[in-house]
Structure formats: C-alpha cells, structure tokens
Amino acid sequence: MREVVFTVDYEPGCNAVADALTEHGDARVRSLSLHATESSLWRVDYASGSAAALAAVETAFREGDYYADCLVPENCGATQRTEVLDDGEALVLYSYWERTPTCASVPHIALEHLGEGVLFETRREGREYTWRVVHDDGEVGAFLDAVDAAVAHTAAVEVRRV
Q1: Which of 111, 98, 100, 120 is nearest to 146 (CA)?
Q2: What is the pLDDT of residues 66-112, one digit of tens each?
Q3: What is the C-alpha R_g of the chain?
C-alpha cells in the first residue's frame, strides 16, 4: 500500500463549505466514511464547532450552488442530497451524489488513475481540504496532475507526502 497526502486550498467564494469554515474558525469537518463508484459518491462526515458554525456547515452542504466535493467551478447538474444523521453537540452528515459527464471529484479522479480499492481520509479546516489517499497501485503523478488541473481556477494544491 502507498499513501499520498495533499491539501486543496480554495479561493474565497469558490467552495461553500470552505467559505463557511473560514467564517467560523472553530469549525472542523472530517470524513468518517467515503466511497465512490464510476457513477456516484457517498460519504459520512463529522463536523464540530459552535452551534452557529454547525448551522453554517449544514447549510453549505445542503444549499451550496454545487455539491461540496465537486471540483467543477460551476453547477455540473449532478443529483445530490445531504441528510443529517446526528445534530447534537456535533453534526454527522450523510451525502450522496450521482455523477454527470462534467463532474470531477478527488475520489473519481483516484478511480481513474489509482484504480479500485482506494481508501480516503479527509479533514477540512478553513479553506484547506486535506486528503489522505491510500492505494495499492497506479500513477500518482498523473493523479495529482489531474487534481491540480481540475481545481486550477478555484484552488491551489499542495502535496504534503507521497
């Protein structure tokens, strides 16, 4: 198994979740589970922070112009939904979306370049969205180039570990 860790740092106004997290510095989001197929993506995330921060994060997940994980800088027309599984002192969100031909996401790019069986761990804080990707094989350079190309107009990618 091999690991690659990188951070996507979003520009203001380019990702609703990043904007909400930046506005509420105490908020954090981390993945509990994340799975992708060629045609869909589903995930469970754990968000922590103040009540106002959690409300802003929930709104960003539910009402953003496009799905929170989509790398396309405008609405790609994907069908998506987000459900709150727990909203006590933290927030647990289940999200699902069906991919369209114009959709791009880190998990889908990983499927294309690293194959099936890839494991993901994510952490979001402010504008930074950090991905830990564990994979068996594939072209890591091509994968990172494809992620960088997908976010070129909305964010910067910093590779932390290969």
Answers
A1: 111
A2: 666 777 766 677 788 899 999 889 999 999 988 877 788 899 999 99
A3: 15
pLDDT, tens only, 125-161: 999 999 999 999 899 999 999 999 999 988 999 999 9
The closest alpha carbon to 17, from 5, 28, 32, belongs to 28
Bridge partner residues of 45 (DSSP): 31, 93
| Beta-ladder partners of 158 | 7
